[in-house]
Amino acid sequence: YRMSPKYRFPVMLNDCTVATIHFLKSLHMYGVDHARVVLCGDSVGGWVATELCKLFRNHPGLPRIRAQILIYAALQAVDFQSPSFQQNHNIPFLTWDMMFDCCSCHLAISSEWRSTIKKGTHLSPEFWKKYSKWLGHENIPERFKKRGYRPVVPGPVNEKAYLETALARSETCTPILAPDDILAQLPEACIVSCEYDLLRDHSLLYKKRLEDMGVPVTWHHMEDGFHGVFNTLGFGCLEFPCSLRILNLIVHFIKGL
């Protein structure tokens, strides 16, 4: 797909959509069973896989997606005060500043709102009243708060920042906010989260949302994992043990479909 900063949202998603449609229409060319198509992605690729599953859940003339595999996926772009953000904000290979720079570039959000967004004052009380049932930190198991977590009460909303971050609050950029009736139609999921990952809580919150909607979820948590660890697979002495575990778990999941 074409990438930012030259190409911004929704170019990446559109490119992946076109490629997926081509693939689904050409399964016979690749020797793929139309009943066993799986979408997989890591990090922002996990977000793309999630959106494609939503898009193709009832697409006329195309095979239904059998399952989705999400590896430390980026699944929300609004709340940056959850336990994993407080605990892992300076851990390579994804720090808070790196993540903000990527999001602001992709969604055309001015860098002047960096501290405002980090503190949560870009969100209105009305937003939290509507969506806290899905984003609230009480949905995150207590064991994930033990390394350090302090509930934060946001200050007064910054209206300019609120307006400029409207796209981030959309259900496309933040799939956790998708309506119940859409999530209930999504395919079975395999979700991999990593303890030392800024985005860890994205997986935990999305897992709960899917399970609440009756979607089967297989979840694996890497206690020794961090964001990007899967990319070390095959790099010899640079390979982290959990990267191979993730691969084996994914293979086992796919074989069991």
Secondary-structure map:
Layout: H1 11-25, H2 27-30, E1 38-42, H3 44-55, E2 67-71, H4 83-87, H5 96-107, H6 114-119, H7 125-135, H8 159-164, H9 180-183, E3 188-196, H10 200-212, E4 217-226, H11 241-255
Parallel strand pairs: 1-2, 2-3, 3-4
Describe the fold and architecture.
There is one protein chain. With 257 residues, the chain is of the alpha/beta class. It has one domain (11-255): Rossmann fold (3-Layer(aba) Sandwich). It has eleven helices and four strands, in the order H-H-E-H-E-H-H-H-H-H-H-E-H-E-H. It is globular, with a radius of gyration of 18 Å. The chain starts with 10 loop residues before the first helix and ends with a helix.
Keywords:
single chain; 11 helices; alpha/beta; Rossmann fold; 40% helix; 257 residues; 4-stranded parallel beta sheet
Describe this structure in a few short sentences.
The chain is of the alpha/beta class and 257 residues long. It has eleven helices and four strands, in the order ααβαβααααααβαβα. Helix content is 40%, strand content 11%.
The largest pleated sheet is described as:
4 strands, parallel
What is the assembly state of the chains in this entry? single chain
Question: Percentage of helical residues?
Answer: 40-55%
Q: Rg from C-alpha positions? A: 18 Å
Q: Within the largest sheet, what's the order of strands? A: 1-2-3-4
Portion in beta strands: 5-15%
Q: N-to-C SSE series?
A: HHEHEHHHHHHEHEH
Given the helix and strand composition, which structural class is it? alpha/beta
- Average the pLDDT over all residues and give the rounded result: 97
Uncertain spans = none
User: What is the number of strand segments?
Assistant: 4
Task: Classify the fold: give the CATH topology.
Answer: Rossmann fold
Number of helices: 11
CATH architecture assignment name: 3-Layer(aba) Sandwich
The N- to C-terminal Cα distance equals: 28 Å
Tally of discrete structural domains: 1
Give the overall shape: globular
The CATH fourth-level homologous superfamily: Alpha/Beta hydrolase fold, catalytic domain
What is the class in the CATH system?
A: Alpha Beta
